[in-house]
Design a protein that fits this description.
The complex is a heterodimer. By secondary structure, chain A is an all-alpha fold. Chain A contains 21 helices and no strands. In chain A, helix 17 runs parallel beside helix 19. The chains are: A mainly alpha, B alpha/beta. At the A-B interface, helix 1, helix 7, helix 9, helix 11 and helix 19 of A face helix 1, helix 5, helix 12 and helix 13 of B.
């Protein structure tokens, strides 16, 4: 074998042995500093440990913030906390915010708002290069509702247009700060691309701390994105904003199936009678998802005169339409001969579905009794 | 003349083995670096992203948890109980009894007060006949499907057909989840609409204290074989999977714990029946389906949602399992051979699949050849003792570096093993791993290749142990 191969192998051994020694030492040091929880060791080596261990440092900062809020220790001002102006300080702050009560959160908020130097620090960090750290500070803005920083949060939403995590936390901050105007501007901007899932957006809407009715009314006409439109429509249904139903009615003609479905669902849930006829027509829509939603909505909006329509839906060729129609029929009051009527349809699939829903309902009732 | 031929052959094999060792070492090193970056990124994102906000939210994606079961009487009740007690808002658990020959179904009936129900379901994917469907009178979100035996893939397909929700999670019947695992894994679908599939990390449950299907204390086993596997899993998941995920080329989501977009799985044809490596095959199929349709998508691995599983605790079972895995790999690669080296499939076709062909599939052959050729070279005087030993040392050091690297990552992030004795034990086995265990696995893989056609079967029959001490006594 050539000597150069031997030489190469020898070099590899030295390199690998060095890496292994480095890794091993790293592992031991890391383990010792992260698991050291003895109080005596902590006191003696606190400073060293804080320097070496992120976890211990975080714990120290957390304790100090609690002392500041309780005013029962050496810490009386935010600037007394050594290390608060670091990234770790911000993480400690977000941990504390999760732990404290609403009045304490309000106290912390007012302390931060008064300390201009700390506000300037947050603002500076919101313009940092690293998106992860910007995320941490944005979370702080969200949790403490520091609405004076909404402009900075808004600009960050354009800085990382493809990072879902950053978009979510940025929007969360705006929703929690009830930054209505900023959100309206953002959502009506055609250059802004929403990359979150619909469900995440819905969750964000739920976090809005301002006047929901006013927000939805203003946003519904302005939004460029169908997810936003849908979220508004769903929000109207969830928060039972009946006064906004008339704004939803035009969307019953939408060409976007999902918008149409949410409109039917919302108007059905709020029992908005003027929409009944349109929903009845949608029970024969070409899309099965629309038909199945219309079946449920119809049972809510017109429980006394939708029986025939629902029986027709029960014979639909699509499984989900039959399923929703059967569920709706089982909830309709005043139809003791339901199973006989279904049998008379002479549709095996309709009968099986209805029987299943009845059995399942009985089973769940047993559970309730038990 | 013969000696010359043998001499030349041995030299060629030596060169091939050396080239192989150097290349695979470089690849693993890239994976380790990539995994370190990926894990760091993930840990940082945890500082501000907040899955817990969604845990019980009405806006969280409702999911169906599918548990295929075949002769799982030892663990099925604990496993099901565990799944019914997870922190998650809206979900259903569907246990699919795939024609078990033991009393799996009876145990379920007794433990959860099952009542047969005529539930119509949509046959989106063809499967073996379903004999009966049961619902629990105690747990409204538990469904049990009893069907004719058709293999694990078929059982999962039946579960997909019966499921009601848009995302499903597949879980092995010998595994249990941490309470927050479902919320953590499903959060990916919430935050990223492009997400098609997500895999969680699998850890070894042997040695842990599990009561009524709930993990009480994490510990390590005293069985050397289980310890070796504990290390191996850590290395595979914390370096391999994260590395591939970071490079956007994840091909494996373990069947023991993975979440999938149901409609896309149906569109791709579901799990392939009678396919042994059905988990990997499905992921490859999803890549193919999405890339063919030129659709933007992501397939992810998350190191945080944990699934604790039971590994084989005897050499016989280990051999069965490893052969099954390797046959699954061969089967998958053969079925999708048109994707390898095909630029239409992007980095998956150009880099990832060729890597699996060369290093994961054929690699063990090179390795075994090396085991024989180096001593023969020594006997023929081609290499001296110094070279032979130093070559062996390189291999040992390399394996140890990867294992210790994974341990280091674990210690720096999740710290599931907090005691120094546990770390030292893991470290010891990281070294011992190179003296026999690794070689044994390589031999199992070569054996699997040699008997590929003969050994194809649907379910692996590995001896299961109960999770709790009381059950174990029974």
């Amino acid at each position: 074998m050539h000597t150069w191969i031997q030489a190469m192998v020898d070099v590899l051994i030295v390199v690998m042995a060095s890496i292994l020694v480095f890794f091993t030492l790293g592992l031991i040091v890391l383990h010792i500093i992260t698991t050291s929880n003895s109080k005596r060791v902590e006191q003696i080596k606190r400073r060293i440990i804080r320097m070496l261990s992120a976890k211990q440092d975080l714990e120290f900062l957390r304790e100090q913030i609690h002392q500041l809020l309780d005013q029962n220790g050496e810490v009386h001002y935010l600037r007394d906390i050594r290390g608060i102006q670091t990234n770790r300080g911000a993480i400690a702050m977000t941990i504390v915010v999760d732990e404290i009560s609403a009045p304490q959160r309000e106290l912390l908020r007012s302390i931060i708002l008064q300390d201009q130097w700390y506000m300037a620090h947050i603002r500076k960090k919101l313009h940092a290069r690293n998106s992860d750290w910007v995320g941490v500070f944005t979370k702080l803005v969200a949790e403490l509702r520091l609405s004076v920083l909404e402009e900075d949060v808004l600009s960050n939403l354009y800085r990382w247009p493809k990072k879902a995590d950053n978009q979510e936390i940025g929007l969360l901050a705006l929703f929690m700060c009830a930054s209505r105007d900023k959100l309206l501007t953002l959502f009506s901007d055609p250059s802004f691309r929403l990359i979150l899932s619909f469900r995440s957006l819905q969750e964000l809407f739920a976090c809005y701390t301002g006047n929901h009715a006013e927000f939805c009314r203003m946003l519904l006409g302005k939004s460029q994105d169908s997810y936003i439109t849908r979220s508004c429509i769903r929000e109207i249904g969830i928060r039972e904003m009946t006064e906004l139903c008339s704004l939803v009615v035009p969307y019953l003609q939408s060409e976007n199936t999902n918008v149409l479905i949410d409109s039917i669902r919302t108007l059905g849930k709020l029992r908005y009678a003027p929409a009944e006829e349109s929903i009845r027509q949608h029970a024969a829509h070409s899309e099965w998802s629309v038909r199945s939603t219309a079946a449920t909505a119809l049972s809510e909006i017109a429980p006394d005169h939708c029986y025939e329509e629902l029986l027709r839906c029960l014979c639909d060729r699509e499984w989900w339409v039959r399923f929703h129609a059967a569920e709706a029929l089982s909830k309709l009051p005043g139809h003791p001969d339901l199973m006989a009527d279904v049998q008379a349809l002479q549709d095996r699939f309709a009968f099986e579905m209805m029987r299943y829903i009845q059995e399942r309902t009985q089973l769940l009732r047993q559970e309730v009794c038990a | 003349m013969m000696k010359d031929i043998l001499y030349t052959a041995v030299v060629v094999i030596n060169y091939v083995s050396l080239f192989y060792v150097l290349t695979i070492s470089t690849i693993y090193l890239i994976q380790l670096i990539s995994a370190t970056m990926g894990l760091r990124e993930y840990s940082r994102s945890l500082k501000y992203s907040d899955y817990s906000r969604y845990t019980f939210s009405d806006n969280m994606v409702p999911i169906s948890v599918l548990v295929p079961a075949y002769n799982e009487s030892a663990t099925i009740v604990d496993n099901t109980r565990n799944l019914l007690s997870l922190d998650f808002g809206n979900y259903e658990v569907i246990v699919v009894n795939d024609g078990s020959k033991d009393n799996t179904l009876d145990l379920l009936k007794d433990a959860f007060r099952l009542i047969q129900i005529d539930q119509p379901y949509k046959r989106s994917i063809p499967t073996q006949q379903i004999r009966a469907l049961y619902r629990s009178a105690e747990y409204p979100n538990l469904v049990v499907v009893d069907k004719e035996n058709g293999g694990k893939a078929d059982a999962l397909n039946a579960g997909i057909n019966v499921s009601m929700y848009p995302v499903f999670v597949s879980i092995d019947a010998d595994s249990i989840l941490e309470r927050s695992s479902l919320a953590k894994i499903i959060y990916s679908f919430m935050i990223d609409p492009k997400c098609v599939a997500v895999g969680g990390i699998i850890r070894i449950a042997s040695g842990c204290e599990i009561v009524n299907g709930e993990l009480r204390e994490i510990n390590l086993s005293n069985n050397p074989l289980l310890m070796l596997q504990t290390n191996e899993y850590l290395r595979a998941f914390l370096t391999g999977r994260i590395g591939f995920h970071k490079m956007g080329m994840l091909l494996i989501i373990s069947g023991a714990f993975g979440a999938f977009n149901k409609q896309l799985v149906i569109d791709a044809g579901g799990y392939t029946p009678r396919c042994i490596g059905e988990d990997m095959e499905l992921v490859v199929k999803l890549h193919q389906h999405m890339l063919k349709g030129k659709r933007v998508y992501s397939i992810k691995f998350l190191p945080d949602p944990v699934c604790w599983t039971q590994p084989p605790d005897t050499l016989g079972d280990l051999k069965k399992q490893r052969k099954r895995w390797h046959i699954g790999l061969i089967d998958t690669l053969m079925r999708h051979r048109d994707m390898a080296f095909n630029p239409d499939y992007g980095r998956v076709g150009i880099f990832c699949l060729p890597y699996f062909w060369i290093f994961e599939l054929i690699g063990p052959v090179f390795e075994v050849m090396g085991y024989f050729s180096v001593p023969i070279s020594f006997l023929l005087g081609i290499v001296d003792l110094h070279f032979m030993l130093s070559f062996f040392l390189v291999a040992v050091l390399y394996g140890t570096i990867l294992s210790v690297g994974a341990l280091l990552m674990e210690e720096n992030t999740f710290r599931k093993y907090p005691r120094i004795s546990q770390i030292l034990k893991l470290f010891l086995y990281a070294v011992l791993d190179n003296f026999g265990y690794r070689q044994l696995n390589t031999i199992y893989k070569v054996e699997a290749m040699l008997g590929f056609r003969r050994n194809k079967s649907s379910w692996g029959s590995i001896q299961r142990r109960a999770f709790t001490a009381e059950e174990k006594k029974k």
